[in-house]
Description:
Layout (H helix, E strand, L loop, with lengths): L5 E3 H5 L4 E5 L1 H9 L4 E5 L2 E5 L3 E2 L4 E5 L5 E5 L5 E3 L2 E7 L2 E4 L7 E4 L1 E7 L2 E3 L6 E4 L2 E6 L2 E3 L6 E4 L2 E6 L2 E3 L6 E4 L9 E6 L2 E3 L6 E3 L4 E6 L2 E3 L13 E4 L2 E6 L11 E4 L9 E7 L2 E3 L6 E4 L1 E2 L2 E3 L2 E3 L12 E4 L5 E3 L2 E3 L7 E3 L7 E2 L1
Parallel strand pairs: 1-3, 2-4, 3-6, 4-7, 5-8, 6-9, 7-10, 8-11, 9-12, 10-13, 11-14, 12-15, 13-16, 14-17, 15-18, 16-19, 17-20, 18-21, 19-22, 20-23, 21-24, 22-25, 23-26, 24-27, 26-28, 27-29, 28-31, 29-32, 29-33, 30-34, 31-35, 33-36, 34-37, 35-38, 36-39
Amino acid sequence: MVVASQLNVKYDFGVKGDSIIDDTISMQNALNNGSNNCIYIPSGIYILSDILYLPDNITIIGEGIGRTILTTTADNILKLNKGNNISISGISFIVNNKKGILVNLAHINNLMINNCSFENSSDKGLQIQYSNNVSIINCIISNSLSSGIVLSKTSNIIISGCRIYNNIGCGISLTGIGTKDNGCNIFTVQNNYNINNGKAGIAITGYCSNGKIINNICNNNGINNPQGMGDGINGHRLNNVIILNNICNNNFANGIGLNGQDENGNTSCQNIIIENCTNVNNGNSGIVLFYTQNCKANQNICTNNKCANGLKGGGIYLCNSINNIIDNNNSYNNNGRPDIYQDLNSINNKIS
């Protein structure tokens, strides 16, 4: 994106940022003049009482997390329903109300969010829908009353280097909307730190495909949803996804849980590779493959998992799964349950 000039919201538009004056009107005026410009928001606490709407082709730069703070009593701080070429960096978004999503964007082509924080949302911290070419880099998302980051029916996604913790829902959620053609497609979720979230640390659901989940730490998640989505990494109806070098420990359900059961009882979770992941001391199993097909679990560590489901569990547990390869894993000491266990409906799996 080519930026024609930089405009300072305080000097050019009279925005105060003094934590007292309502800056909504003057800040919106600054944004209205921001198309093809860079809007610079100096350090300060900016009080907002209504939603700010973004134009196309805008770069917004603050002085960094905890220095440039936008706080609101409205439903959202930033909102845009259709646009192109949006870049936001160096801003803390903090809610001060009883409802609403901090930043709510849809139908965006080319979106970059870097070095921002999303704190104390009474709903989701950051929601992005129906968008393309989305990067969320080095952000903090914490203490939301729903999930931290939610992307729906969005393609070409990178979520990297983020710290997502203490959210009531999932830490990161990528999902589809409606039919199997509406999942997120082409995604990389890497080097993120997901801890103490009420549901899964990372949840990729709703027919998402062609992705990588790499080098994430997903620990202590699932306290609010231990059976349904209480995993470190939860995948539902995925296709062609690599899950590599992740640490998933101390989660209330499983370290990594894949569920491919669709409305017709088919195995809709296919072509998944789980490799070199550590799954220790989880409430149920280290790895669960439920209604999966043509998946591979290789060189993973699954130990000291509690297998709280009793007969339905093990270090690695296969249920209604076919044509999978379970090879060269280090699975042991899982509360007396088998290192690798498959039920009677799991057939044609290669286990070694």
